[in-house]
Design brief:
6 helices, single chain, Arc Repressor Mutant, subunit A, 60% helix, 3-stranded antiparallel sheet, mainly alpha
Length: 168
């Protein structure tokens, strides 16, 4: 019988953390997607409504800002906004100050969908994180941010080699 290769404890913990994060993330995302589908929109479309409804711009948000803040490509923002316009949830108009700029603004119907969905999502998040204390959710968020941002300064293909924290 062939003995499986031994696995370093740090490697095993890293693999277990990744698998757990992946499974939980997929499950939580599916729950969020279901809520959005219940309102006839997708999660990315909800993200557009989020930016528009929380914006301080009374005339609307420039299309370029939507693309910069939410997505990888301007074509994605255009596609999402096109669908929201078709559903009567947002409007798209030229800027009165610069005709090259297209402004996007939520309609009253779009705001109503956003507000109803946001209430459902907040309730979902309370349920999703209900078994954790506020301190634990804060610590989890801090650790996930630390893992993410430690990777951001690396060149493609590089991996971070973060030393384990000392135990004092």
């Amino acid at each position: 019988m062939v003995k499986p290769p031994t696995e370093d404890r740090r490697d095993r913990l890293g693999r277990e953390a990744f698998i757990t994060l992946y499974v939980v993330g997929n499950h939580f995302t599916e729950q969020l997607d279901d809520l959005c589908r219940g309102k006839g929109i997708s999660h990315p479309q909800y993200s557009v409504l989020w930016v528009l409804c929380l914006s301080d711009e009374p005339e609307g948000v420039p299309m370029g800002s939507l693309a910069d803040g939410l997505l990888n490509r301007a074509a994605d923002a255009t596609r999402l906004v096109d669908r929201l316009v078709a559903h009567g949830l947002v409007t798209r108009t030229p800027s009165p100050h610069d005709r090259r700029v297209v402004l996007v603004r939520a309609t009253s119907r779009g705001r109503a969908v956003f507000e109803a969905l946001t209430a459902q999502i907040k309730a979902l998040h309370r349920e999703q994180w209900g078994s954790l204390t506020q301190g634990e959710v804060h610590e989890l968020t801090r650790l996930l941010n630390k893992a993410f941002w430690s990777q951001q300064s690396l060149a493609p293909g590089e991996s971070a080699h973060v030393a384990a924290p000392s135990r004092k």
